[in-house]
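During the reporting period, our protein records have gained a structure token line. One record among many is quoted in full directly below:
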Amino acid sequence: MSEQPNCLESLLVQVLTEQRQQTAILSRMVEQQLILIQALAADQDDEDPDALPSTYMDGTPCR
């Protein structure tokens, strides 16, 4: 009967380890997205926020 709790404990440890890895990955993604948002915001500092865009998101000019 002691084998079952050890097996359960092992599975829980594996799940916890995987969750920690996923949390680390998600944290890195958040950091990278914040850097991207800041870079995009810095690029648009000199533009009028109310002006109509001159290009679409893919780079083609608006008509």
Notes: The first helix runs from residue 3 to 43. Residues 27 and 46 are 31 Å apart (CA to CA). The chain has a mean pLDDT of 89. The radius of gyration is 24 Å.
